[in-house]
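Sharing a chain and its predicted structure for anyone who wants a worked example. Both blocks are below, sequence first, C-alpha cells second.
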Amino acid sequence: MYCRYPSTQITFAEIQNDKVSPDRPNIIFILADDMGYGDLSCYGNQYVKTPNIDQLAETGTRFNQCYAGSGISSPSRCALLTGKNTGNTRIRDNMCTAGGIAGIKINPNGDSTIVRRANLLPQDTTIATVLSAAGYRTCLVNKWHLDGYDKGASPNHRGFDEFYGWTISTVHSNSPYYYPYYRFHGDSLIHIPENANGKHGIHNNDLSTNDAIAFIKRNKDNPFFLYLAFDAPHEPYNIDQTAWYEGQETWEPNTKRYASLITHMDAAIGRLLNELEQLNLRKNTLIIFASDNGAAIQAPIKILNCNAGFKGRKGMLYEGGIRVPFIVNQPGMVPIQTLDNLIYFPDMMPTLAALAKGTKHLPKQINGINILPLFYGKQVDTDNRLLYWEFPGKQRAARKGDWKCVTIHPNQPLELYNLKEDPEETNNLAKKYPRRVKEFDEEMQRMHIPTPNWPQQENNSEVICRTRANAVLVLHINTNNFISKSIYKHFSLYIHS
C-alpha cells in the first residue's frame, strides 16, 4: 500500500530557489549510529552528558514517538532517504536473500563471511535528488551504507553533490573504525596522515565535523542540505578520550567508551552549532537530530538504560530496536514543544521536499507523509495510518494508533500490544483480540511488495538462487542471511537483480 503525497498540505510564500530564508532554510540532518532512545539526557538518561543535543531539544521540538526505518543500519537509512518503508525499499536488510552483489563481510571476531548486499540503483530517487533539483547544494558526510558492494552506488552518484566519508564497497575506507587511515572525497580515496601507521591523531567524530563545517563555509550563501551521519556510538567502542566518565569507578572500560563516544559526538555538534552562529546562519538553518536504530547488544544497555526500558535492541522490531530520539530545531521558527505524534523515517522525504519547495520532484509512490506542519506548531493527523517494518523472512511489525503487531521469529504468530497502556510490550493481547491481529496481518501483507532482491517466499528459511546455467539451487541460510564462503566458492553463484 502506497500513500500518494498531498502536495497542498502546507504552503509558504514563493521565493527564489537560490535564496535562503527562514521558511526555506538550510537543512542539516544529524544521524547517530546505534544510539538508543534513552541515551540522551533530554530523553531521561541519568549518566550520559549531552548538553548540546539537550539544548536543541529544550529550545525546539522533541518527538516522543519517532520510529527509525528499520532495526539495523542499511534498511533504516534506505527508508530515510527514499521515503519508502521496508516492504517497498530497495534495501530491506543488511544482507539480501537474492540478487545484490557478493562480497566479504569482516565479522567482529576477525574472520570473514561471504554475503550478498543490495544497493541503491541509479533510478532510485533520494532526498538528495529531490533537494538538489529544488536548488539546494547537497552533501553527505561520513556513513553511507547504501552501496552494498557496488562501487558505482556511492553518494555522489545517488543525488549528493559532495561526499566525504566511507562506503561498504571499499573495505579499508573506514579502517580502523573511528581512527581511519583512508576516507573518500567523492570517488577519490584519500589518506588520513594523522592516523597513518596506527596513530590516533584524529577521531572520526572530529574528522566528520571538520568536513561538515568546510562544506557549510563553501555554501554559506546558498541553500544547502547537509546529511551528517556520525559513526558514534556504533561498536567497536574506540575512543581515547574518556575523561568525562573517569569518576565512574564502577563502570567497565566498555561502558566509559560507549558514553564517551556519545558525549564526544555531542561536543562535535556543539562545535558545528557555534560555527553556524559565527557565520550568521543559525536562524536560517533547520536542524534535525535522530538515531538510525536502537542500541546494539554490545552496548551497556542495562547499566545506562540505553533503550529507556523498552523491550528489544538493535536488530529487533520491538520498541527498543526501532523507537529513536527525534529533535527539530530552528530558532524563532520551530516552537518549544514535546509531541506524541507517530512519525517515522519515510516521512522525511516528503517533509523536506515541502520545506525546500521541491514537491514536484518527488516520486509518485512513497510511504511517508508530509509532517512539516508539526515542525512549525501546526497539527497533522499522523496516527490513523499503518507504519510498517520487515526483515524479509524473519521479522514483521506494524503500528496503527495505540496498537502494534510484531513478531521477531520466522514463521511465528504475530504478537499484539497496546502501546498506550503497555509501552514495554509485556502483555501480548493477540489471543484476546484475534480479529485485530487478522486485520493487521492483512494490511501488513499488502505492504510487502516482492522484488528480485526480496522475492515472495513460502518457506522463509529458504532462498532460491540461480546459477549462470539457470539451474535452481536452494540454499538454507541462517537468520543473518549469511552464505558460507565454502558454499559460495563451490557453487559460483551468479544472481542477478
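Comments welcome. Residues 253-278 form the longest helix (26 residues).
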